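Note to self: keep these together.
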Amino acid sequence: MDVVTPDATLLGRAVNARYDALACCATTLSCGAALDLGEPRPGEVVIDLGCGRGKDVIRAAGLVGAAGRAFGVDASDEMLAAARRSCPPFLANARFVRSDLAEVALPSGEADLVLSNCAINHAPDKAAVYREIHRLLRAGGRFVVSDVVSEAPLPEEVRSDPAAWAACYGGSIPESDYLESIRAAGFGDPLVLSRTAPYEKGGVLVHSLTVKGIKP
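Structure:
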């Protein structure tokens, strides 16, 4: 499917500007309960893509315990700085990494669980992010992702607007296309754990979706 996207530089600036500004706020940026539904277990390695201020990473580090590890990945320097400030010193198993979600600076095949909450919709190539999730997971590892999808293909004026992408709706794609990007990455059929009723953002209808998949 041909997808209209903004210039990559303009898109990156718009997304980073929004999230840098939100780093010091208490605004909730999630669109689901990926961490709770992922159920991290003691000793596991967890990676949170688009970790923001690090709340889920800190919780995951506590859940996996000293024998496990929790990594937060984000492209916003301000968000990562806020995450590091809020991380208790005794959580030596929590680490934060600046990286693009489609090219994560972490080793292959080490994660038991990959999480993401309202972040992959910002990526122009969703399938590339899911291929990266596939790379990061060990065989038998799982992902749980909450994200925003559109009720119908978005008009070109929305899809070409960097501000709409930064606001979590301009990069959304129909649910059927989103699930196909997961299948194309090698996960087979994902399980839809939850789906909200449609709601309006920027004059278009979207809904939030939480999906789970397992690496064969």
